[in-house]
């Protein structure tokens, strides 16, 4: 039979000295996603090695020096590193509005929205390809020359990500209605029209996929997006049928031997085997495979490093995309989530398209492999987007202890008495003789419960 313990005895037992546990109070700070930083460094360094390996023979045949393309890529990586550091420490919330509170001299700019300025600059860069500084290569005006060749379509991708993230994040209810999607669709149509006359059909596909990804994550309804996708596919079929060379590229998927680039790419991948020929020992880069240092660098990786090297590259991209998704999910607001989502989508789309082209699943499009392929504007923009993701991660990263600031002594439960130790206020009231009776506690609890129910009813 259980012994009945009186209320007085339980109070007496609970007032005795009990063992305590010490919980340390710690000051915390937010940090960057270091896994993302390490992955970025590995990809960029690996890209420099592969650019040199894939391009030195071609550079020597042009009497430019074996390290010509490597040095140009190294300069662009240096610029990208500086921009990565800048965007890492530049608060992404400043894209929404200028920090007038911190910098009073910006007071005249209070009503100006920076993300609109970024969008206008992106559109201007697209228009510059038709100016005297525009460069025509193989019948396409896709670049501008300002000492180094820059592809404005890459700048436009970054501008669109920032603009859409800030615009949707400011008013997320807009995209839930079809009429709210209309301004974004008009902007997308204008950008695609400018790029179409360059022409750069691959950039159009990447930009459309990027914008649709942001709209979907931003809250657009799937039926509305389905209508847009259906109209877009019809437009793609019309554009393919209009130009014979695009139809020829589609036909090459069924018969790879009819397309020289695709055939040489498959030869390169197949000859690599499991471990590859060895770094620098590719045969297809000896002027057999076109664009070996840019569009088809994945085929050179497969030939020199084999299946194992390809898996390592895919693993690095997988880690980078995974960390970007984690940052997007932990972002403190919708703008940060969309910025991280846009960066992840931009990288993932180009990785899928580039590798798909190299293995013959997608027609040749001219899309480079992020961080690895030769191309100044590409590596600069991709590194900048990772910098933006790192800034978002700084606002949502897991807390890291900085220093101990004190201790809190917490009394353990008195198992022998079968109850929690008394709170200090209750013990003080008991000693002063002003402790409420159990009935009074029950009445007060019932009164508070009724008040909560009334408040909830008023809210609903």
Annotation keywords:
2 domains; 460 residues; two-stranded antiparallel ribbon; globular; 15 helices; mainly alpha; 3-stranded antiparallel sheet; 62% helix
Please provide a written account of the structure:
InterPro entries: FtsW/RodA. Peptidoglycan polymerase that is essential for cell division. Its EC number is 2.4.99.28. By secondary structure, this protein is mainly alpha-helical. The chain folds into two domains: 31-398, no CATH class; 432-460. It contains 15 helices and five strands. The protein has helices spanning 7-14, 34-61, 68-89, 114-127, 152-170, 178-196, 201-218, 222-242, 244-254, 260-272, 297-330, 334-358, 376-396, 424-432, 438-459; strands spanning 20-29, 134-137, 140-145, 149-150, 400-411. The strands form two sheets. A three-stranded antiparallel β-sheet has the order 2-3-4. It is globular. Mean pLDDT is 80; it is low at 17-28 and 404-422.
Helix content: 55-70%
The structural domain count equals 2
How would a crystallographer describe the biggest sheet?
Answer: 3 strands, antiparallel
Estimated share of beta-strand residues: 5-15%
Tell me the number of helical segments per DSSP (H or I, 4 or more residues long).
Answer: 15
Shape: globular
Nutshell version of this structure?
By secondary structure, the chain is mostly helical. The protein is 62% helix and 7% strand. The strands form two sheets. It has a three-stranded antiparallel beta sheet with strand order 2-3-4.
